[in-house]
Design goal:
The complex is a heterodimer. Chain A is an alpha/beta fold. Chain A has 3 domains: 97 residues, Translation factors (Elongation Factor Tu (Ef-tu), domain 3, Beta Barrel); 112 residues, Rossmann fold (3-Layer(aba) Sandwich); 60 residues, no CATH class. Helices cover 18% and strands 34% of the residues of chain A. In chain A, the strands form 3 sheets. A 7-stranded mixed beta sheet of chain A has the order 10-9-8-7-11-12-15. In chain A, strands 1-2-5-4-3-6 form a 6-stranded antiparallel β-barrel. In chain A, helix 4 packs parallel to helix 5. Chain B has a single domain, classed as TIM Barrel (Alpha-Beta Barrel). Chain B has an 8-stranded parallel beta sheet with strand order 3-16-15-10-9-8-7-4. The chains are: A alpha/beta, B alpha/beta. The interface between A and B is large, with 41 and 50 residues.
């Protein structure tokens, strides 16, 4: 059950090209699960920016000195995130969470490959902790456009059996995409399951590899959201349900985690003609 | 319900001022005048995680159609200065699922359900009204004749007095006589009073004013419209003066017709402006995306604002700005 908390900024630090904000947010930290996200209001009480910004949860501490804290990672891409990056400790921040469906974890110890693009790696760290606590092996694959857009490589090295790094410009690691490194990692680790988070293009490539290899894959999408709680219907994408029917589902409440083979990547940005409730003219 | 809303709970330590907040929308009696706005609250269940939806005047549902509808392609939303542009396209489960799950949920919670209905033809509207009559449970019907996000702009009944009247009349005839029918009007017309008058003459018990304004945002990087649907409905505080002007004009021309006012209400003082202009109740819409407990907060702030101005009854403030 999500809660709305008048939280307090505990710290804001720069990590490479990103910012990580830790917020004292009692009620969120205690129930958050890996893959879930928070939304924050930006711009202050009289802001003209009405859309809450959504960020996947990077770390939670249930019992900090000041109460439960939650940390999220962001890049400055516009006015809202610029405002966030200018916050100081002890300032108030309106935060809602935990939101969305978390990653589901294997019941038995398994070998898990975690794939992240850019700061899409952020939610994979609490996931890796939860997997390791269950006796799972974790292999990490992370990629970004260039070195300073990688997030958490040192931490990933510490918690994973192997770490593979790719950059589009070759500034560090393999010159290429995570999808170039992934097949080798799947084979070498004898992977049972893959978890991925990042831009849609990356998720699509990872999903195709996993579907071809017959390896179950869960992806966490980063769709544009307005409300984050399921009322605005902005963040929909075509997903195949248990009954085989395609529906335009909300990534904020039915997601952000989906089974990769259920997402119709080819049809994102359209209403597939066979979707439930598609316009009759094109059916 | 274990919702902990730190901000929302704080003011409850202060005793709320003793004001009679009850109001009426036609035959619909409400304990207080703040409702959700259609399309900004789904059917109440999501918001119930943040506040008790039975505590506000009513839940106005997302517009219900006869059949399930997938809506328009994404992107569906663009943030704009003090507002947003949306092109959802009435995505929803259809009347069967609504009557099966959503309406009973609202009734069980003790929430007052204002059911918004939308259709592509007069006949569809009439069928929806008949289904609601047979099912019972709706406290009021809001007839959405003004959604801008339809493929054919000719479907915007609220842009034509005759078309608007045809829909209203069909719904009024098919609805339980005890359930008020409100026509939801578009601000995108030359003479909103003419449309309002036409709806009232056709049997509307009241007016919901207003829906979004048709707008456009272009991405200067791709040099294409941001929304897949190209145009969308503009909402939020940016449109408040326009919506308020519409309420003012309608109340001036038709002082006995109850108005449910909406358009950019974010605070209690925003709500008070609509009340003073002639609204007997208000809907809080886009603000809910920014603050999921906004409807309950606006109610609290409105009560406080009325107390500060010496009102003992909410109803005494309705239309007050028209007094010389």
């Amino acid at each position: 059950m999500p809660v709305q908390v008048n939280g307090e900024v505990l710290s804001l630090r720069r990590i490479g090209g990103y910012h990580a904000m830790t917020v004292v947010a009692p009620g969120i930290a205690e129930t958050a699960k890996p893959g879930q996200f928070v939304t924050v209001a930006v711009g202050g009480p009289d802001t003209g920016m009405l859309m809450r910004r959504s960020f996947s949860i990077h770390q939670v501490h249930e019992r900090g000195v000041y109460g439960g804290t939650v940390e999220f990672v962001f890049a400055v891409v516009g006015r809202g995130t610029r405002w966030l990056a200018e916050r100081q400790p002890h300032e108030p921040i309106d935060i809602v969470g935990p939101l969305g469906r978390p990653f589901s974890l294997p019941r038995e110890p398994a070998t898990c490959v975690l794939v992240g693009g850019g700061y899409g790696t952020a939610p994979l760290f609490p996931l890796a902790e939860a997997l390791r606590a269950r006796g799972c092996r974790v292999d990490f694959v992370m990629g970004a456009a260039r070195e300073d857009k990688l997030f958490g490589a040192l931490d990933a090295k510490r918690i994973s059996a192997t770490l593979s790094v790719t950059t589009d410009d070759g500034s560090v690691g393999l010159h290429g995409r995570v999808s170039d490194a992934l097949p080798g990692v799947l084979t070498a680790s004898n992977a049972d399951v893959v978890y991925a988070c990042g831009p849609m293009g990356m998720l699509r490539a990872v999903s195709e590899i996993c579907v071809d290899a017959g390896i179950p894959c869960q992806i966490a999408v980063e769709e544009l959201m307005a409300c984050g709680i399921g009322v605005c219907m902005t963040c929909v994408l075509p997903v195949v349900g248990d009954d085989g029917q395609t529906r335009m589902v909300r990534s904020c409440v039915e997601g952000p985690v989906f089974h990769a083979e259920r997402v119709r990547f080819d049809d994102i940005g359209t209403i597939p003609a066979d979707a439930v409730g598609a316009p009759e003219a094109v059916r | 319900m274990t919702t902990m809303t730190v901000r929302a709970s704080e003011p409850e330590r202060v005793p709320s001022p003793d004001i009679d907040m009850s109001t009426r929308l036609g035959g619909f009696e409400l304990p207080n005048p703040v409702l959700t706005a259609s399309g900004c609250a789904a059917a109440g269940q999501e918001l119930a995680q943040f506040f008790d939806v039975a505590k506000i005047g009513g839940v106005v549902t997302k517009s219900i159609m006869l059949r399930p509808r997938s809506g328009r392609a994404t992107p569906r939303m663009a943030e704009t200065p003090s507002g947003m542009l949306n092109s959802i396209g009435l995505q929803g489960p259809g009347i069967d699922a609504f009557l099966d799950k959503d309406l009973p949920w609202l009734v069980e919670r003790g929430a007052r359900a204002v059911v918004s209905i939308a259709g592509g033809s007069v006949d569809e509207f009439a069928k929806l009204a008949a289904r609601l009559r047979d099912a019972g449970g709706a406290s009021m019907i809001e007839v959405n004749i003004s959604c801008p996000n339809v493929e054919d702009r000719g479907q915007v009944f609220a842009c034509d007095p005759r078309a608007a009247a045809d829909v209203v009349q069909a719904v009024r005839r098919a609805t339980d006589p005890g359930v008020p029918v409100f026509a939801k009007l578009s601000p995108d017309v030359t003479d909103i009073v003419a449309i309002a008058r036409s709806c009232v003459n056709a049997g509307a018990d009241g007016l919901s004013m207003t829906n979004t304004l048709l707008g456009l945002v272009i991405d200067t990087d791709t040099m294409r419209p941001v929304l897949a649907g190209v145009t969308g409905g503009l909402s939020g505080p940016a449109i408040r003066p326009v919506a308020l002007r519409c309420v003012w004009q309608a109340h001036a021309a038709l002082p006995d017709v109850p108005i449910l006012g909406m358009g950019g209400i974010r605070t209690g003082l925003d709500a008070l402006q609509f009340v003073l202009a002639g609204a007997s109740a208000v809907s809080v819409g886009t603000a809910t995306f920014h603050d999921p407990s906004a409807p309950l907060r606006v109610l609290r702030e409105l009560r406080q604002a009325l107390a500060e101005r010496g009102f003992e009854r909410f109803s005494d403030a309705v239309g007050r700005a028209h007094l010389a």
